[in-house]
Amino acid sequence: MDAIYRPELIEPEAQQHWEEKQAFKAVEDSEKPKYYCLSMFPYPSGKLHMGHVRNYTIGDVLARYHRMKGYNVLQPMGWDAFGLPAENAAIANDVAPAGWTYANIDYMRKQLKSLGLAIDWSRELATCKPDYYRWEQWLFTRLFEKGVIYKKMASVNWDPVDHTVLANEQVIDGRGWRSGALVEKRDIPMYFFRITDYAEELLAGLDDLPGWPERVKTMQRNWIGKSFGVEIHFPLNERHQAGDDVLKVFTTRADTLFGVTYVAVAAEHPLAQQAAAGNPALTGFIAECKQGSVAEADMATMEKKGMDTGLKVYHPFTNEAVPVYVANYVLMGYGEGAVMAVPAHDERDFAFAQKYGLPIRPVIKPVDGDLELPLQAAYVEPGALFDSGDFSGRTSEDAIDKIALVLKNLGLGEKRTTFRLRDWGISRQRYWGCPIPIIHCPSCGDVPVPADQLPVVLPEEVKIDVGSPLKKMPEWSNCTCPKCGGAAERETDTMDTFVESSWYYARYACPDLDTAMLDGRANHWLPVDQYIGGIEHAILHLLYARFFHKLMRDEGLVSSNEPFANLLTQGMVIAETYYRDLADGKKLWINPAEVEVERNDKGHIVAAKLIADGQPVVIGGTEKMAKSKNNGVDPQSLIDQYGADTARLFMMFAAPPEQSLEWSDAGVEGAHRFLKRLWKMVYDQVEGGPADAFTGGELPEALAGLRRQLHQTIAKVTDDIERRKQFNTAIAAIMELMNAMAKQEGEDTLTRSVKQEAMEAIVLMLAPIVPHICRILIKALKPGACLVGSPWPEVDETALVQNEIELMLQVNGKLRGKLKVAADAGKDAIEATALASPEAQKHMEGKPAKKVVVVPGRLVNIVV
Q: Cα–Cα distance between 128 and 416 in angstroms, integer?
């Protein structure tokens, strides 16, 4: 064993050994319990960032730990390879997206391997490969034929510069996230998954996921948004008869029905279109409404505008004429595209009514009080009804039930349950994505591509400019209808990339399968036992994956109901930011590595200057590592300087996994010093000559105490990793044990045997976290031992038995010393020993004790 720790030598050697031996190749071994550990796969953007390092290290620690505990472990890796960034890079670098993507995959794979991850690389997949998306297309055609996927016109966020649909999350302040162009609302034909058919099951299934963070489940519940209310029909004719046209609205506050003073409809609503005919002003306003985002966040903050259509509907109870407004805050795709407005009891309606001089009619008051009239603001709480006909005097809750019953009897409404969740539109007007397997035939309509003609392969040698090149490639899009044999065209839209990431976890079970989407191996491995990824994926990815799993279950492809049994959402990696203000009002962000800082006594940064010119820079605060703020640290430079084990140790020790991790150069250096100290401790033990680990017998108290601490540490580290997922406290406990060992003097055989037992256990406990160094250290301590295959250390319960325990001794609440008593000593004996101790006698100063408080196993407090 070398005297000096050299990670640059031992790490490549270990990685090469593991790869040659296929040490982490998973097999469907039914003799062992399975453990499928999966970290969310990366987008191949070009280089790993520290968020990746943290994510994959957490997963690797859990995978390696469970392997040592006797589990059959699967930990795969792949690439979420489709998406708009590749198209943008292609335009910027004048390359094809495919070439850019594959080059990035090759580089990032090397980076991941340099971290020493225990990955089964034989299962690697990339979502942009035809052998992957072929089965996605196959499932699409099945679901389309069953009506689970359908096509309809939809109002979407349209970026007029990028010529594509934007998700709501991609609209920022009414502009496209990439182009900055003002977003337009546009109706286009799109394909949708009927995720709303699964809304109830998706909601109920959250109760069967005890291994998920409550925060994530709450976010999904809110996104699904189940609500109970009443559908109300406002007749279009004053003398309404059964079968006549009505305007349908849904409300959770039917108790406010008598306070309705107008109704509002979306710009695309048939009533709006009808009223606009021959009305240039209304036509212009409707066009203006379409110039805007359909994102809920934008809708909530934008100025509310409306215009009277001149049309009227009629109140279902009073038959009063109610004006119909077109309003920019009503979306056609939500509910019926119409809302009833009650200005007295809704803040938005109140502001709208004030702006347009509409009546404000209160009908709800506090149960035990009155409203101050005229209203200065909307009263939005439930209460008691007044001025509401026969329903006056009832509470809101009671009135809703009664109103719904009367409406049902009149044929003008009924109780309804609705969901905030909307069907998932997956059509994207982009090139770099999975082609939608539909052929458009003038005679037969939309025809799914037959299974024997799949995959519809995306051409990879293309030039990207504006819009999708597929629309400009007749040699690709022109085809023959599989039904009638006539001339037809392929669909040129591609699928939302969330589709690829919604089932990849299942394909890892059988990536070599070329005759079906999945086989029996999927049921062997699924559900994933531990899934790891960022909290930012709490809603879309995780919800879509849960939905997709149920689709695959209903197709007979999997037997489980949920894809991920346990979920760990790791926090962000954050770092200081620095910048200089530029003349054009923009900021020049400066990487922390280029800055020299001055700190106060508390370690806070109080000044900073650019190393290159010695001039001050502005301290921007601590934020998530990001290219936009230029505050990232290149993982490769960290690995090159300190080694992968240092990076892994720092990531696991600096913060609990679910919390944000603040980058610290000093913390990295401290992690490296610890590994050098660990190396030296083992080196000194080995240099002392061969030693066998202690296996039993009598020990003097000092050695018994050290061995007791060893097995207490094994118990704690086991619990911290397996149950609590608190790797930082596990490492801290090992450090405390090493400190105790350093204080243990003696080189006799008995002492060396206890130290040998402790050193072997320490190395094995650290092995999931820092595997490269531990591979060398375990071989040095136990010649012939192999780290892969070594079991996790077991707790020796006999070592935990104590004849004596140590208690803190306090006088008047102040710590004055320590007290050793028999482990089975009773309260009276402990009091007597405490009162007789020299420390107590000194600080009691001859005064009598008023009382003695004994906290079993912890302390004694003498009150004088």
A: 43
Q: What SS3 class is residue 846?
A: coil
Measured CA to CA, the distance from residue 685 to residue 681 in angstroms comes to: 6
Higher-scoring residue by pLDDT: 132, 88: 132
Identify whether the C-beta of residue 212 lies closer than 8 Å to the C-beta of residue 567. yes
- Whole-number pLDDT of residue 299: 66
Query: What residues contact residue 561 under an 8 Å CB cut-off, 6+ apart?
Result: 205, 208, 549, 550, 553
The CA distance from 458 to 460, in Å, is 6
Parallel, antiparallel or unpaired: strands 384-385 and 364-365: antiparallel
- The DSSP element (H or E) to which 232 belongs, if any, is strand 226-235
% pLDDT > 90, the chain: 86
Q: Which of 262, 249, 260 is nearest to 416 (CA)?
A: 249
Contacts of 709 (CB under 8 A, 6+ apart): 736, 737, 740
| Residue 110 in tokens | 């090397």
CA 187 to chain CA mean position, Å: 31
Per-position b or e across 46-56, b if 16+ CB within 10 A of its CB: eebbbbbbbbb
Estimate the crossing angle of helix 130-146 against helix 540-554, to 10 degrees: 70
What pairs with residue 531 in β-bridges? 38, 567
Q: How many CB atoms lie within 10 A of CB 141?
A: 20
Structure tokens belonging to residue 187? 């109706």
C-alpha to C-alpha distances, 493 to 132, 207, 470, 476, 500, nearest whole angstrom = 18, 37, 8, 13, 15
Residue 292: the pLDDT is 67
Percent of the chain surpassing pLDDT 70: 98
Identify residue 175 by its one-letter amino acid code. Answer: R
**Can you tell me which residue has the tokens 């708009």?**
84
Contact residues for 167 (Cβ-Cβ < 8 A; gap 6+): 157, 496
Q: What are the CA-CA distances from residue 155 to residues 186, 272, 330, 334, 400 (Å)?
A: 5, 15, 12, 10, 32
Backbone torsions φ then ψ of 590, nearest 5 degrees: -120, 130
Q: What is the rounded distance in angstroms from the CA atom of residue 757 to the CA atom of residue 763?
A: 10
**Residues 428-441, mean pLDDT to the nearest whole number:** 95
User: Across 109-148, where does the E strand assignment appear?
Assistant: 125-126
Burial (CB < 10 A; 0-12, 13-18, 19+), residue 652, is: buried
Quote the CA–CA distance of 529 and 34 in Å, as a whole number. 9
Residue 611 has what pLDDT?
97
Mark out the alpha helices in 767-826 (DSSP H runs).
771-781
Torsion of CA 613, 616, 619, 620, to 10 degrees: -70
**Cβ contact 780:1 at 8 Å:** yes
The DSSP call for residue 722 is I
Q: Which residues pair with 488 in a beta bridge?
A: 479
Angle at 498 between CA 497 and CA 501, to 5 degrees: 100
pLDDT tens digits for 765-806? 999 999 999 999 999 999 999 999 999 999 999 999 888 888
Question: What whole-number distance in Å separates Cα of residue 63 and Cα of residue 118?
Answer: 7
Residue 394 and residue 249 in contact, taking contact as beta carbons nearer than 8 Å: no
Q: Compute the mean pLDDT over every residue in the chain, rounded to the nearest whole number.
A: 94
What are the residues facing 661 on neighbouring strands? 573
Distance in Å from the first CA to the final CA of the chain: 59
> What span, in angstroms and rounded, lies between the C-alpha atoms of 404 and 317?
12
Per-residue pLDDT reduced to its tens digit, 151-205:
998 877 888 887 777 766 567 778 887 788 988 878 889 999 999 999 999 999 9
Q: What is the pLDDT of residues 319-377, one digit of tens each?
A: 999 999 999 999 887 778 999 999 999 999 999 999 999 999 999 999 999 999 999 99
Residue 616 and residue 609 in contact, taking contact as beta carbons nearer than 8 Å: yes
* DSSP at 335: T
pLDDT of residue 762: 98
Note the pLDDT of residue 215.
Answer: 96
> How far is Cα 49 from Cα 39, in angstroms, rounded to an integer?
15
